[in-house]
């Protein structure tokens, strides 16, 4: 039988697995056993499921596949950062990154193959969006990084950021399902407070998340609080405008009481003046928020240049004077193109 025809067994939940066995004339608890193998023990093949009879394993093999991701290539940076090129069952590749600090290990995971947005400064935008990742493809990236964290840094994964390839809110249902697995006791049991979903700002979906009362944190890649400038660097801003984004964020805060993080790169000649800073300060006043100034990671053509210390200080000082928390984030893993916005399947 052709593998393509077989269904991915990991698309079935526990109940569906139980029903499958009942309907095949077997005991429902076999479904629980398979579920454990798939999600607790991370089995990659039906052969591994040693508490099932040979006949049962063969029956499963006939009808199903286990579509696991495979870490095709792992690169380790001198600062401990690890970048994985992850091969999906259909041969497409996404990237995920392990970022260690002295106290935590953060997984930066992808939500789509490529991206449909067109941020001018981001390497991933050069790849067209090929497809959404399935919940288990997102989950597997996290599991792989958890293993690497234990192996290379002697501790489990502590945090997850959806800042890899793709726009998570354009793959919302699968994002939620993957987070359910990550936080669920049958998966990794992680606290949702340790998960941050980063979006370029899709107002309709931010409202939806607020309505769904999600428990993870929200980060918005703002980069400019002036509509014309934001549109010039993030063209979809012409459709998802700042006033609309602002309204959705106010709604988000009202519903969730969860502070928003604005990610922001300061570029020379683009957003490095007092006017830009003042607009950001105003934007921050709509809902409790903090600003994360991120270092620019150059992608090939040099159209964007990281602004110098003076502009950064202008931002930090003005934000602080206005009582807004600001952090400056230095890039990690630049030597292996693993930093923000550098994920573009170069390998
Ligand atoms: N689509 C989502 C998540 C992926 S991008 C989003 O836009 O938030 C993750 C973060 O990296 C975003 O804040 C993005 O603006 C930033 N980024 C993209 N390219 C970058 C680059 N070349 N240097 C630094 N940060 C970059």
Characterise the protein shown here.
With 347 residues, this protein is of the alpha/beta class. The chain folds into two domains: 3-65, DNA polymerase, domain 1; 70-336, Aldolase class I (TIM Barrel, Alpha-Beta Barrel), CATH 3.20.20.70. It is 34% helix and 18% strand. The strands form three sheets. Strands 3-4-5-6-9-10-11-12-13-14 form a ten-stranded mixed β-sheet, covered by helices on one side. Helix 1 packs across helix 2, helix 4 packs across helix 5 (172-183) and helix 6 packs parallel to helix 8. The chain is elongated. The model has no long low-confidence stretch (mean pLDDT 92). The protein binds S-adenosyl-L-homocysteine. S-adenosyl-L-homocysteine binds at residues 119, 121-122, 163, 167, 198-200, 221, 263, 265, 294, 296-297, 299, 340-341.
In short:
With 347 residues, the chain is α/β, with parallel strands linked by helices. 34% of the residues lie in helices and 18% in strands.
Q: In terms of topology, how is this protein built?
A:
Blueprint (H helix, E strand, L loop, with lengths): L6 E2 L5 H10 L5 H11 L14 H10 E2 L4 E7 L5 E6 L5 E8 L4 E4 L3 E2 L17 E2 L2 H19 L5 E4 L9 H12 L11 E5 L3 H9 L5 E5 L5 H7 L8 H15 L3 E5 L9 H11 L4 E6 L14 H13 L3 E5 L18
Parallel strand pairs: 1-2, 6-9, 9-10, 10-11, 11-12, 12-13, 13-14
Antiparallel strand pairs: 3-4, 4-5, 5-6, 7-8
Helix pairs in contact: 1-2, 4-5, 6-8, 9-10
The structure holds S-adenosyl-L-homocysteine (SAH).
């Amino acid at each position: 039988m052709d593998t393509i025809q077989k269904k991915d067994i990991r698309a079935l939940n526990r109940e569906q697995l139980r029903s499958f066995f009942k309907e095949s004339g077997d005991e429902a608890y076999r479904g629980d056993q398979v579920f454990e193998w798939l999600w607790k023990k991370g089995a990659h093949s039906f052969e591994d499921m040693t508490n099932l009879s040979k006949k049962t394993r063969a029956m499963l093999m006939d009808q199903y596949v286990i579509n696991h991701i495979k870490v095709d290539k792992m690169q380790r940076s001198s600062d401990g950062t690890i970048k994985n090129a992850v091969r999906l069952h259909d041969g497409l590749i996404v990237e995920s990154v392990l970022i260690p600090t002295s106290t935590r290990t953060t997984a930066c995971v992808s939500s789509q193959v490529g991206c449909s947005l067109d941020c001018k400064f981001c390497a991933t935008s050069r790849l067209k969006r090929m497809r959404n990742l399935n919940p288990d493809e997102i989950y597997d990236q996290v599991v792989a990084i958890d293993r690497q964290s234990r192996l290379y840094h002697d501790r489990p994964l502590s945090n997850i950021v959806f800042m890899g390839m793709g726009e998570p809110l354009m793959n919302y249902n699968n994002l939620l399902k993957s987070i359910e697995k990550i936080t669920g006791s049958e998966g990794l049991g992680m606290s949702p407070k340790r998960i941050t979903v980063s979006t370029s700002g899709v107002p309709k979906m931010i409202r939806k998340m607020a309505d769904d009362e999600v428990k993870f944190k929200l980060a918005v890649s703002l980069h400019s609080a002036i509509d014309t400038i934001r549109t010039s660097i993030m063209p979809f801003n012409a459709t998802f405008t700042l006033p609309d984004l602002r309204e959705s964020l106010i709604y988000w805060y009202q519903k969730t009481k969860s502070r928003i993080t604005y990610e922001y790169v300061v570029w020379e000649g683009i957003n490095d003046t007092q006017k830009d800073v003042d607009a950001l300060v105003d934007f921050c006043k709509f809902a409790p928020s903090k600003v994360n100034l991120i270092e620019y990671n150059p992608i090939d053509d040099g159209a964007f240049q990281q602004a110098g210390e003076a502009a950064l200080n202008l931002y930090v000082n003005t934000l602080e004077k206005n009582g807004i928390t600001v952090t400056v984030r230095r890039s990690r893993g630049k030597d292996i193109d693993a930093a923000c916005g550098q994920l573009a399947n170069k390998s």
